[in-house]
């Protein structure tokens, strides 16, 4: 009778299903390269690494990369970048947690860890510390941080912001989406609301005397990239012949990423706008950035910009 539990691992019979771990050696080499860059490789590891590099000279570049990466991290992390206010809050909460006392008998109870203010304080400290790391990471990305990350160029930001406003414009041409987002029905209330929110004056659109008019659909809060507050205003421009053209005007405190000057209107390029047959214009007035998505053709485009109080002088970004 055969015993199914018998161990045949030493029988000498090869297992046809066995497959060697092809990644194990690669992982070991990668670990050695990182340890070498950190100066923590043992003598045996040094000998093995020298042999490996002799057989794979192309790996020298990986060693150089690991060393450069370590050097960059050392330079970035040399000085603390946690804001003083955040640091003080962490110290205060940690001190409060340390001052609390619980007996051994209490800590053995499951309910202690579920309700204990000590654990709540520790959790809060962890959350704040995580926030500090996120804040630091975002600072490195926006500022470069010595890691070879370049700042956002005006052209790159124009593409990013243009694609966003084009998508939002098309989405809010749909009645159901527009009614959910564009909740302020009066244009004067809308401009007053955003003037107060931005702490900067927002200019209201006007109707012209050439037979054109503009119909306000509604406005509401938006999330234009790289701004901490922004708005979306939807209009229908009506030409002398009755042609109705959907428009969207996005407004936000100018983040300065487009590098545009006041007193002129800039024509921006955006892949999404081009795909939808819309034009994109940008201008700044008293610290407020205006982004106009217009589906008007050439015969009506100038009138539309005039209704939106865009500067008459045009310039390409």
Strand order of the largest sheet: 1-2-3-6-5-4-7
Q: Give the CA-CA distance, first to last residue.
A: 86 Å
Shape call: elongated
Number of DSSP-assigned strands: 7
Can you describe this structure?
- The protein has twelve helices and seven strands.
- The chain is α+β, with helices and mostly antiparallel strands and 317 residues long.
- It has three domains: 23-76, no CATH class; 82-97 and 115-151; 154-316, MucB/RseB, C-terminal domain (Phosphorylase Kinase, domain 1), CATH 3.30.200.100.
- It has a seven-stranded mixed β-sheet with strand order 1-2-3-6-5-4-7, with helices on both faces.
- A hairpin with a 7-residue loop joins strand 1 (213-222) and strand 2 (230-238).
- Helix 1 (22-38) packs across helix 2 (43-55) and helix 4 (84-99) runs antiparallel to helix 7 (117-143).
- The N and C termini lie far apart (86 Å).
Main attributes of the structure:
3 domains, 12 helices, single chain, 7-stranded mixed sheet, disordered N terminus, 317 residues, alpha+beta, Phosphorylase Kinase, domain 1
